[in-house]
């Protein structure tokens, strides 16, 4: 890793204690276009040439996306996990920012569509859509009571098309190795609760691949254990150990494949976001009497207050018009947080340029991004305030992610 590159990126994107997304060049959102370009297709913006210098005649790209394993986590674990040091010696680790919000639902929709959150309209894990008169979790597309939304279809959650039909048209075969079935590529599933099932699913993908090809593998385990135990916990370290042991096994499977052109296979490791440890004892409960906030929220047509939009690090408040200014003043006084007004977000392209209609109607009147704590409605969803590691905000440890690349030949 070029420390000067990281320092320059941080200096350029820093805004006080916050780090803004680098949509114009060094951003996670440009990975899909970069992969497509390496394989001879054009689906959207790519990273600067320096990110892939020296990678010529690539016929297969393999991406391991380790959920929640940001650049801070890579740097924190590299001395302990030999595989990470091996990968650094074999290739390059390029620092990128992720998108805002630094959340899986937003980032994965970006990754699979090559569009920004401002375009696809997924503003966080929780979404309120005024046209549908629904609050729901974008993943796994459920209301808080466990039922499926009735007034919006899953296909309409993201206002964007998948990149995979276009890749197929360009002659690129795509396989997904994920804990859930994929409808947009050739699926290979494994049990997320048992990482030992991952290598077989990956091997199945390798065996079934015809080049030019793209294999995408998604591993969410580090993110899940981080929420529960924190990134400084023994459980997190054990999960990271196993995750990269399984990735190492998968790379061995690639190397052992018959008729393999190791120089033509590019292996990439990245993350949708990083993690920061919050303090469950101090995380902010917006339903507390001192805020007197719930009564000021807009409601669904049945009278339910619109509490669930965004996440505890990216809170979207949909307020009655007469209360917006007073709530803004109160929150900026009470919290160590940035409170963005809707127009400020649109003017500064925080979620990206070219806002879609879906994005504009889902965007809160105010968006609250705390410096280092969680902020949520504890009376309705207390478990969210008990999380230790969180993400979704603009802390550098949430926003910076690795884009690690090496040819299969160099990893042998």
TrEMBL record:
It comes from Haloferax mucosum ATCC BAA-1512. InterPro entries: Alkaline_phosphatase_core_sf, Phosphodiest/P_Trfase. This is Type I phosphodiesterase/nucleotide pyrophosphatase. It holds the Pfam family Phosphodiest. GO terms for molecular function: hydrolase activity. It comes from the Archaea.
């Amino acid at each position: 890793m070029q420390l000067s590159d990281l320092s320059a990126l941080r200096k350029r994107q820093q805004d006080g204690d916050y780090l803004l997304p680098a949509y114009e060049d060094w951003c996670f959102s440009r990975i899909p276009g970069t992969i497509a370009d390496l394989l001879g297709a054009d689906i959207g913006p790519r990273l600067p040439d320096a990110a892939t210098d020296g990678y010529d005649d690539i016929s297969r790209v393999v991406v391991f996306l380790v959920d929640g394993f940001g650049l801070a986590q890579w740097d924190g674990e590299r001395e302990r996990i030999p595989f990470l040091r091996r990968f650094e010696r074999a290739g390059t680790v390029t620092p990128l920012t992720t998108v805002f919000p630094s959340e899986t639902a937003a980032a994965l929709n970006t990754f699979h569509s090559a569009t920004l959150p401002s375009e696809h309209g997924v503003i966080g894990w929780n979404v309120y859509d005024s046209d549908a008169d629904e609050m729901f979790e974008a993943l796994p597309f459920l209301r808080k009571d466990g039922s499926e939304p009735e007034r919006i279809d899953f296909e309409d959650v993201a206002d964007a098309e998948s990149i995979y039909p276009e890749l197929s048209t360009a002659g690129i075969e795509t396989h997904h190795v994920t804990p859930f079935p994929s409808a947009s590529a050739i699926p290979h599933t494994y049990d997320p609760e048992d990482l030992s099932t991952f290598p077989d699913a990956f091997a199945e993908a390798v065996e079934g691949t015809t080049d030019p090809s793209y294999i995408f593998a998604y591993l969410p385990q580090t993110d899940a254990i981080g929420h529960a135990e924190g990134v400084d916990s023994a459980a997190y370290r054990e999960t990271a150990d196993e995750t990269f042991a399984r990735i190492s096994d998968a790379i061995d499977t690639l190397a052992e494949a018959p008729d393999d052109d190791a120089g033509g296979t590019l292996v990439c490791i990245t993350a949708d976001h990083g993690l920061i440890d919050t303090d469950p004892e101090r995380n902010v409960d917006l339903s507390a009497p001192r805020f007197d906030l719930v009564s000021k929220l807009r409601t669904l047509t049945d009278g339910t207050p619109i509490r669930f939009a965004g996440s505890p690090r990216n809170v979207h408040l949909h307020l009655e018009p007469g209360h917006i200014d007073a709530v803004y003043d109160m929150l900026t006084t009470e919290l160590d947080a940035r409170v963005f007004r809707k127009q400020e977000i649109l003017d500064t392209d925080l979620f990206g340029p070219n806002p879609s209609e879906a994005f504009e109607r889902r965007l809160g009147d105010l968006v609250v991004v705390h410096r280092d704590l969680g902020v949520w409605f504890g009376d309705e969803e207390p478990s969210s305030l008990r999380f230790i590691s969180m993400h979704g905000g603009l802390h550098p440890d949430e926003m910076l992610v690795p884009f690690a690349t090496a040819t299969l030949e160099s990893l042998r």
